[in-house]
């Protein structure tokens, strides 16, 4: 039952007291105040930070639970997620494997069986890891012949994981425990004797704030202690390199992608089956070089070198180092490819929607795969002896479905479709192109009811990311369907910084060009207003991580344009992001604040540093996790504290801090539902949806 105190909190008159310190840094001759530096400390170790989190959560919880419609929204969300879901099955040795969820299970369960029609034996159930669901399956890998499973467990949303190994033949749990690892999947040898993995020997695997660097490549022999593992590679001159190992299934080539932080450009190290040491296949670091498959000693890669939209090249490193162009650059964006069944499957993007073609491995196109509609596909991978591949399809108004393609006959059949407990009959999707400040056409997908009225009065939830070469593609979400059923419009923006139009689109939103990302997003909001979809007081904006930065920058630059702002796990202090955990890796995207040439560009849009005392900012709900070790919660803590201090009107400024939660991966479904219910209740109240 709601109490009077909670009801009164719908208008907030006082925020928890937050101490303002006197810390000032001098950066490139500029005095930069940082009064909430103390909020950067690890919440698990600093009692003052812990008390601040508790006080903020108490205020936020009281406010949100005083919104009567919240429980109705939560019930609708719970019902919307209660349907079976599954991934594409795959084969290893005598077994088939698949991930499935009955509906409201906190985590999906991994099953195995002896045929694609009979995958019903539980291999691993992450729901047994912890009672509250905060321990999650962070990675899993089946050995080439299906004899072993290696899996990783993360705690409280951390990127750190601990690996274990089990035999599928006799169910034996091997004694070794492999720790100090993150950001990598195990890469098995063809004979299943062991696997490669990345390891951080200079970290203890528990840090949530301290810098994490020094990734090393190691080999683990099955049945031995981690202390006996073999060191493989580390570049001490470049401690910020990441290593991604892959081993080819037949000849056993070790392919290692080497990246400088999160830079999309990478180098490639290789080691042949009869070679003793890794050697550089490509050390230019001037383009993406993604390994897609091998037949014998012939290796295929996807690259954007001298081809911003992507092309496929091939090489036999036993003969020479001369690359052969297999599939030239096209107008469409080359998103991914696989060598499977002696053919090459290729996925493209056309204005942010999928297209799939099948080719000979020499590049000649054989046919185009017919898709169900205008949406997003994934899959099409497998082994060289397969003649069939599985793939999935989804769109904003179409729940995920599973399909099978016969590579020889070209026949496609749908083998499963999610039966969602939501009426989608009135749901429709349209794609528009928004002219940005520099004249570029920015795609925006609008999901809405068919009978929507263009009367400038629709509540709109506008979402964006705009960075790290990541595309915002059409995908079905029960939560977004519920938003539309509430009378809302969902607007997904394909702004610069992403990969929707290849390398050029990404690089147009990097470094000193980052402002273009925000300009694109603001242009989309202005388009919604100009074309009758909404008005400023009805537009809520949302984004997470780099998208949280997007929301923070847009709301500080145009506080007049939005009715609610939802920055989630955002990079809000752009002058100190590189000083925590793996933040240094993002300098490849943002540039470094230590660079005197980049500093003024970064300072100009850093959300924390562009808040101004007395400005009326939109109603804001900041969300983060107290144990986020990717974008540390100090970003959100400091931004929320400063925004509460600066707010020049009665619009609420709240922060919702999930306990025992990280950046988002591995979060149990009941926490997702609770968080989404809070967000939608906040929007319902502050966009005037009940009026």
Number of strands: 39
Helices, by number, come to 11
Q: What's the rounded overall pLDDT mean?
A: 95
Shape, per Cα inertia axes: globular
Q: What proportion of the residues form beta strands (DSSP E)?
A: 25-35%
Q: How much helicity do the residues have? A: 10-25%
CATH second-level architecture of the domain at 426-686: 3-Layer(aba) Sandwich
Which runs of at least 5 residues are low in confidence (pLDDT < 50)? 1-9
Class from secondary-structure proportions: alpha+beta
Main sheet properties: 8 strands, mixed
CATH level-4 homologous superfamily of the domain at 426-686: Alpha/Beta hydrolase fold, catalytic domain
Under the CATH scheme, which class of the domain at 426-686?
Alpha Beta
CATH topology group of the domain at 426-686: Rossmann fold
Radius of gyration: 25 Å
Spatial order of strands in the largest sheet: 32-33-35-34-36-37-38-39
Q: Termini, distance in Å?
A: 23 Å
Which helices and strands occur, and which strands form pairs?
Layout: H1 4-8, E1 24-27, E2 30-33, H2 47-65, H3 70-81, E3 85-86, E4 90-92, E5 95-101, E6 109-113, E7 121-124, E8 135-142, E9 148-155, E10 161-167, E11 178-181, E12 187-188, E13 194-199, E14 216-221, E15 230-233, E16 241-247, E17 254-260, E18 266-271, E19 279-282, E20 289-295, E21 298-303, E22 311-315, E23 324-327, E24 333-340, E25 343-350, E26 353-360, E27 365-368, E28 376-379, E29 388-395, E30 398-406, E31 412-417, E32 427-435, E33 441-449, E34 460-463, H4 478-485, E35 489-493, H5 502-507, H6 515-530, E36 539-544, H7 546-557, E37 564-568, H8 587-590, H9 599-605, E38 620-625, H10 634-646, E39 653-658, H11 669-686
Parallel strand pairs: 34-35, 34-36, 36-37, 37-38, 38-39
Antiparallel strand pairs: 1-2, 3-5, 4-5, 5-6, 6-7, 8-9, 9-10, 10-11, 12-13, 13-14, 14-15, 16-17, 17-18, 18-19, 20-21, 21-22, 22-23, 24-25, 25-26, 26-27, 28-29, 29-30, 30-31, 32-33, 33-35
Helix pairs in contact: 3-4, 3-11, 6-7
